[in-house]
Design brief:
This protein is an alpha/beta fold and 107 residues long. It has four helices and four strands, in the order βαβαβαβα.
């Protein structure tokens, strides 16, 4: 899993210029994988779907993201969302195509 914990600090243009090709190449060399980011990443998540070897995305704070944008760029394109809070997934009110993995409720 690649970690993009500073993603929210980057503009889409900076991501395109300095990060996209490197992450795409890493995923290709590793035979596929996932990207994690903290905070807001919905401003660049459409780029993730252009990586042929990206299989999943893990975002830790859905409340900071435009989740419809996230869903269109991930689950609608065959990319799994990992560890999404079950309440956040249920509140989507849309078809998530069975591509959202939620941790078990500890209760």
């Amino acid at each position: 899993m690649l970690r993009d914990d500073s993603l929210m600090n980057l503009s889409p243009e900076i991501y395109d210029e300095f990060i996209f090709d490197r992450e795409s190449r890493c995923l290709s060399e590793l035979g596929g994988g996932a990207i994690h980011y903290c905070g807001r990443g919905s401003h660049v998540i459409d780029r993730f779907a252009k990586m042929p070897d990206l299989t999943a995305v893990n975002l830790s704070q859905p409340h900071l993201n435009e989740m419809e944008t996230v869903y269109r760029s991930t689950v609608d394109r065959g990319i799994v969302l990992l560890n999404l809070d079950a309440a956040a997934a249920a509140s989507a009110g849309r078809d998530l195509h069975g591509r959202v993995q939620c941790p078990a409720d500890p209760a």
